[in-house]
Amino acid sequence: MSLETPVAHHGAAHEEHHELGFWRKYVFSVDHKTIGIQYAITGLLFLLFGFCLMMLLRWQLAYPGAPLPLIGRLLGDARMPGGTMLPEFYNELGAMHGTIMVFMGVVPLAVGGFGNFVLPLQIGAPDMAFPRINMASYWSYFLGGSVMLLSFFVPGGAAQSGWTSYAPLSDIATSGQTWWLFGMVFLITSSLLGSINFIVTTIQLRAPGLSFWRLPFFVWAQFVTAFLLLLAFPPLEGAAVLQLMDRLAKTSFFLPSGLVVSGQVLEISGGGNPLLWQHLFWFLAHPEVYVLILPAMGIVAEVIAINTRKPLWGYRSMVYSLIFLGFMSFIVWAHHMFITGMGTTMAAFFQTTTMIISIPSVVILSALFISLYGGSIRFTTPMLFALGFLPMFGIGGLTGLPLGLSAADIHLHDTYYVIGHFHYVVAPGTIFALFAGIYHWFPKATGRLMNETLGRIHFWGSFVFMNVIFMPMFIMGLAGVSRRLYDGGATYAHAQPVLQWNVVSSWGAWALALFQIPFIFNFFWSMFRGKKTDQNPWHATTLEWAAPSPPPHGNFATPPAAHRGPYEYSVPGANRDYSPQWEAGKA
Amino acid sequence: MSMEIPYTVEVRPDTGLNNGKIGIWLFLASEVMLFGALFASYVMLRVGAHEWPAGATYLNIPLATLNTVILISSSVTMVLAWASLVKRDFARFRLFMGITILCGLGFLVIKYFEYTAKFHHGYFPATNTFLAIYFTLTGLHGLHVVGGMAVNSYLWGPGSALYKSDPVHFTNRVENAGLFWHLVDLVWIFLFPILYLL
Amino acid sequence: MSESHDHKDAHAGHADVDHHVRAAYYVFGSLLLLTGFTVGAYFLHLPHKLAITLALLIATVKGSLVAAWFMHLVSERTLIYWVLGLTALLFLPLLLLPTVTVLDRVMLH
Q1: Bridge partners of A260?
Q2: Is C84 an 8 Å CB contact of chain B?
Q3: Are A35 and B21 within 8 A, CB to CB?
Q4: What does A464-519 look like in DSSP terms, one character per residue?
Q5: 3 state DSSP class of A163
Q6: Over the stretch B66-102, which tens digit does the pLDDT of each residue have?
Q7: d(CA A238, CA A476)
Q8: How far apart are CA A479 and CA B54, in angstroms?
Q9: Residues A275, A413: contact at Cβ < 8 Å?
Q10: Is C55 on the interface with B (CB under 8 A)?
Q11: Taking CB atoms and an 8 Å cutoff, what residues of chain B touch C86?
């Protein structure tokens, strides 16, 4: 695996003002801004697709066995005979919804999109440290995503063993699972290449005067996230190799001896352990959830500081919390495995580390809340989403606590409570932060503002209906309704009193979809017709706002320097309510 | 691209490092975690097994010992290749890098004989867990040998054109490739006793 | 630009490189010797746990020599030490906790 693709001429001046053709400029670009936009748009498309998969699935949950009008027939007899969803297709939708949202939607947008576009600008750099590796990481993602999409069309359909691909089911599943594994290898490669780039860039390419303690919180968040990706993904890659060996070379890494499938004893060597898959998977997948949330916290921090016109409260504590959180995230993973027969010693160990890890989370959330106090708040669309993030992430985080306690988890594991918990963190949590980031940095990327009215409609509709979808899931989970049930629990006696919530959640999902239409329209329309703006429409202090909107290749006309911290808002004695990092002397 | 990325060749004063050096070490850190996961799998599978065959039951210790010596030697020649570049002796770089590549080839040839001998005896990854982890660990390691050889061959061949225009940059590239190659050697240093001798 | 590298980097000077090359030969010799020990220890047919401990110990020494001298870690920068330290710290739970967790079973009597 080559770290660089060496070119025959290095630093050749004759390439200086050479106009690039369409393909080199827009498709195979090495400019971090173009790559960031590629990641963002691809990520948003996958988010939309993953959402569509769920909207389909929610029909089955709301009206089990009922034919879906119109769309049902279109999907054919292999998936929905007579418009009624087959269990196999239900499983495909579930597994691929999770996989696509996490690995092809949220992280590529949050890290590949926002990280790539904003980070070099915020540190005053001309680009990432390794521009060609950056391009390679996008195309690896594209390839992995394509493999995942194509897997829907193979005989037997896409992966259908959950996004968690637990053995032994995944070992013996249809060929779509093999495609999933290969897709994951490409996606993991993309992440590894990207994380190396982010870390080296942050360490080496900071502008003069930009010490680590003057970095915007967004950069810190991306920096810690990059370490999580770098060190946590390889074990999943290893696990994928092992599962590929099981499926293709007929090994038994995850298959125990004497396994019986459909009444037949499997002709395998045996001696494997399904728990091995779970350990290797969750070793990645737990840090992965912090990969999902940390960039979001970074975005929210920036938006809050700018729209309260005051510094972040407890910036240093927030940074220390980030680092501590990142480290702890590696030693909590088996809280996903409390009911696998674990003894009390190890359950106590993982429960303890899990409880401890909630502390830095609380510190960061509290600091963000306290940052609002005494602020001169501007209720712009990005700020609405950032404000919405705070209580939503609070609910998500708090509902995680019973799950982290091994005794309570016995009742709650694999119920709708878990689904409610993690969706609160990722959907009205991270995705709200990502929306905030889009509205916030859209003017930097395009030189135009998005429409505020459409933004407000998008926010309020999304806020209301996210809660409509996910709040009832806590009720269902506490009643004991298991997740991933094909009929949403309809055949279970204990589920009967809470079944109607399935209908509520489903209609919430379909209503949520409607409220994304103003956003999608706004996004594209504003690119061409949005109100034009200058380089710093929000009157912000961080370095990206010193560059033109949109920034040219190389970002800054003259390399900037940092003369102060990132949140010098409302400094006593200053002429304006903001003192930009790049301006020398008094503001 | 056209603009200069700082610290590609010269070191950044406060870190004392150039970009590529940090980059390769980060990549090596991820490789440690990758092989770590496979070693962790080995530990779990072996501890959980009723019986575990001794390496000698299936594996050829003399051949593997020879492979160990070959890989160690190739690490030395890799250092010598880099040192030659620092002393601006391109011919000696070519010589030592060439030997390094040939050692890698030798390693793979021996592995080929090892594998085919096993298949001939009816020993496949599917046969039992020991062979499964043996083939997977040595196979993944082997892929890394191939990768390292590809990079080294590129640097020996077309990539060496960079030496004329920017010898320091080229020397750094060889050093970084060397770091990867030494990791490949390092992994084998652990693989050999664990699989063959225990 | 091409010479500033030499000033900053400890092992870029020509004299330094000769020192490095000599060290590499010593390490080479040591590694061959230790490889001999590795195989020799095998023929001692020690009790199981001792055999594992000894084999891993020798491998660790060999690996440390490769890391320290071939990979120049003896004269590397602090940042690299931090990255590797962090990796080592996370490598241990990865290696051990899955097995320890699986061994800590709920016992049925």
Answers
A1: A265
A2: yes
A3: no
A4: HHHHHHHHHHHHHHHTTPBTT-TTTTTT-GGGGGGTHHHHHHHHHHHHHHHTTHHH
A5: coil
A6: 999 999 999 999 999 999 999 999 999 999 999 999 9
A7: 36
A8: 52
A9: no
A10: yes
A11: 29
Query: Counting every residue, how long is chain A?
Result: 587
Torsion sign (Cα): A163, A168, A170, A173: negative
A188, exposed or middle or buried, with CB in 10 Å at 0-12, 13-18, 19+? buried
Residue A171, chain B, CB below 8 Å: the answer is no
SS3 of residue A133 by DSSP: helix
Fold of B19-49+60-197: Four Helix Bundle (Hemerythrin (Met), subunit A) (1.20.120)
Peptide bond into A168 cis (omega under 30): yes
- The reply to whether B15 touches chain C by the CB within 8 Å rule is yes
Determine whether the interchain pair A346/C86 forms a contact, defined as Cβ–Cβ distance below 8 Å.
no
Residues 69-98 of B with CB under 8 A from C: 69, 72-73, 75-76, 78-80, 83, 86-87
Question: Domain locations in chain B?
Answer: 19-49+60-197
- ipTM of model: 0.96
Hey, what are A134's tokens? 């950056």
pLDDT of residue A11: 41
| Positions of chain A with pLDDT lower than 70, given as ranges | 1-18, 587
Here the tokens at position B68 are 């160990």
Interior CA angle at A13 toward A7 and A19, to 5°?
85
Cβ partners under 8 Å of residue B133, min gap 6 = A253, B38, B41, B42, B45, B195
Give the residue among A418, A430, A515, A514 at the shortest CA–CA distance from A470: A418
- Phi, psi at A531, each rounded to 5°: -65, 125
**For position A65, what pLDDT does the model report?**
92
Helix (H) or strand (E) holding A261: strand A260-261
pLDDT 10s digit of each residue in chain C, 109 long?
444 444 444 444 566 788 889 999 999 999 999 999 999 999 988 998 999 999 999 999 999 999 999 999 999 999 999 999 999 999 999 999 999 999 988 876 5
Contact yes or no for C98 and A276 at CB 8 A: yes
Cis status of the peptide bond prior to A550, with omega within 30 of 0: yes
A 125-154: CB under 8 A from B: 126-131
Structure tokens at A426: 């990722």
A232 interface with B at CB cutoff 8 Å: yes
**pLDDT (tens digit per residue) in B156-195:** 999 999 999 999 999 999 999 999 999 999 999 999 999 9
Residue among C24, C55, C103 whose CB faces B76 most closely:
C24
Residues of C in contact with A279 (CB under 8 A): 97-98, 101-102
Residue boundaries of the structural domains of chain C: 1-75, 77-109
